[in-house]
């Protein structure tokens, strides 16, 4: 099986059903324990802490690079020493495989 981190996001402009709760729960097993599935099953979120702003922004820039390369973009909350990411697929109002592909690519980033 090709790991999520090795896959590429597919363009999504609607017209497909969001993942069911069962499908989302199955994909949760393929991302790190940092990620939490929202109670409504429509998004995933994670929070990381960093020792200072430099390390925070290094991570944020790496995430932005993934998002641009995959054309799939998280909501980000950033401050001194922390970053929170929330992924969902706006075009379908819920989760798609793209959200889990990006989450797995974020998991693969080096932590500094
Ligand atoms: C064509 C392209 O896939 C879409 O415009 C993308 C861009 N980035 C996106 N990011 C997210 N999170 N959800 C989307 O539906 C979305 N749509």
TrEMBL record:
Name this polypeptide is given: Putative pterin-4-alpha-carbinolamine dehydratase
Annotated keywords: Lyase
SUPFAM superfamilies listed in its UniProt record: PCD-like
InterPro entries assigned: PCD_sf, Pterin_deHydtase
Family assignment from sequence similarity: Belongs to the pterin-4-alpha-carbinolamine dehydratase family.
One GO-annotated biological process of the protein: tetrahydrobiopterin biosynthetic process
Molecular-function GO terms, alphabetical: 4-alpha-hydroxytetrahydrobiopterin dehydratase activity
First-tier enzyme category under EC: lyase
Enzyme Commission code(s) on record: 4.2.1.96
Catalytic activity entry: (4aS,6R)-4a-hydroxy-L-erythro-5,6,7,8-tetrahydrobiopterin = (6R)-L-erythro-6,7-dihydrobiopterin + H2O
